Amino acid sequence: MKVLVTGATGLVGSELVPFLKKQGHDVYRLTRSKPHEAHDIAWDPSRNQLPKGRIDGTEVVVHLAGENIAGKRWNPKVKEQLRRSRIEGTRLLCETMTQLETLPKTLICASAIGFYGDRGSDWLNETSAAGSGFLADLCRDWEAACEPARAKGIRVVNLRIGVVLSAKGGGLGKMLTPFRLGLGGVVGSGNQYWSWISVDDVVGVIDYCINQEKMSGPVNTTAPCPVTNYDFTKTLGTLLGRPTMIAMPELAARLVLGEMANELLLASARVMPNRLSESGYRFLYPTLEPALKHLLTTPG
Fold this sequence. Notes:
It contains 12 helices and 13 strands. It has helices at residues 13-22, 52-55, 76-97, 134-144, 147-151, 170-180, 199-211, 229-240, 250-257, 259-265, 274-279, 288-297, and strands at residues 2-6, 26-31, 40-42, 60-63, 106-112, 123-124, 155-161, 163-165, 193-194, 196-198, 217-221, 227-228, 270-271. It has a 7-stranded parallel sheet with strand order 3-2-1-4-5-7-11, sandwiched between helices. Strands 6-13 form a two-stranded parallel ribbon. A two-stranded parallel sheet has the order 8-10. Helix 1 (13-22) packs across helix 7, helix 3 runs parallel beside helix 4 and helix 9 packs across helix 10 (259-265). It is globular.
């Protein structure tokens, strides 16, 4: 199939593109930088620019693009950039898709478990209501921006992605150096749930949703065994053979990261991937220790 991918150079996209190519798909990358390959297509959501002729004939669109949610300390300007990069890009993509001579069959659009907000130890699934806070509002509006495609009959899947584990970047990538130096420890109380997923399974879920026509709407993209921050910390420390005694109190996290600490580190979301599990998706890494072992020993 002709597959169009945005965010192709990101943490997930850089793993997804070569995977799809190995599957035999004809993969095109939408890029905001200068195109480097024949299959690269330039677009600029901030200027409402997306060449329809280049993307006509696309059968599947995988939309992963968005500013790094943890790239900068949040302030009103940064939060607006985070919103615009997701909502404006999604809206432009969906509205352009509806104008093509041949409509794509499927849109798989990233979202996040931030949709659920801070919910303590409550079990959450795809039927759970949206939470409150900046990320919850962002995710709700992000998913709503897909409505033009959905209204036109395109199958839309909104992946509510958890904490993506990869040794190459993301949260785990940032944690490895301090943990290897023996400077790792719990954040806050350590009782908050981190609903995680291996990057290998994120790619697997996207591939699964491409091929499963019954999948549409919200799909929690998390492993079926969420853990507390305390359990995550102790498991990672054990695998690295390092102590995990340097805790970060809530006050310190807030002083360093501000509002971001509340929603990314201290918030608790105990999310279950009910739709994936019930439809038959088989996780490569359903539990944390094997996932971390794989990531920490995989070359590159």
